[in-house]
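Quick note —
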Amino acid sequence: MFTKVNEKVKKELKERAKRLEEIEKLLTEQHRPEFFTGYRAVKMINEIADKSITSLSEEEYERLSKYIRLNSAKFRTRISRSMKQAKSKQFDFKKTVQKSVQTFGVPFKLYYKKPIVKKTRIVCILDVSGSVIKYAQFFLQFIYELSSVFVDGVKSYVFVGDIDDITEYMTRYPLKEASKLATSAANISYRAYSDYNRAFRQFCDKYLGFVDRHTVVIILGDARNNKNESGLEYLYQIKKRAKTVLWLNPEKQSKWDTGDSIISRYKPHIDGLYQVTTFNELVSFLEQVVI
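Predicted structure written out below.
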């Protein structure tokens, strides 16, 4: 009798677990159509994810922004896992031996070292001139959805000529509103021409103290400097203090070093240069490189 009851309870628990698993899958499915608007949503996301961000309509832009919000937990999980210094369990020989003394030298339990999470701070330096402002807004939304992953947080600065700290906007307001404020209300002239020399010099004068050996600096810009000085000496100062300096160029690589673009002059002084013109390219960068 008890055997039959136990089997019945086990079967019921198994069925409940299966139902919970199905519910969880529905709630976390990466391309769940109900997250968007209708049965064609999955196909639409796949199509617009490879479109240039500047060519997105308002509806498409909002659709991708919503996708980021709804899937941010999944992205945070992926990145936090890869930020662990130990990819697998490391046997703690010393602790195992010490504990075995309590059992007369017989190690009844094996002990493993806890994975160490890297102390990473993200510093974003973003060009918000007219040609790249939409990329900056989109990037800010994404990076702040992931900000809880980074132990020392995220600090952000925007520039055209002058540079300003917009971290407060990103931490006080809802992300969609914050990204718009950051790219329209900072204490800079948005109608000026891009001047990387001036921006890098001001960053070194005002904010270089925030950069240390745990800092990953991400620069987003097309390096179109309007025939101004390059500011390489200031970029070198940033690189010297930072753990890593990465540059995201929102232009197609075929346009680099054409016209007033001087991106190749910066390349020897950074750790990585990446084309990020689409949502998929941005996701790939964040998953594979920043961490």
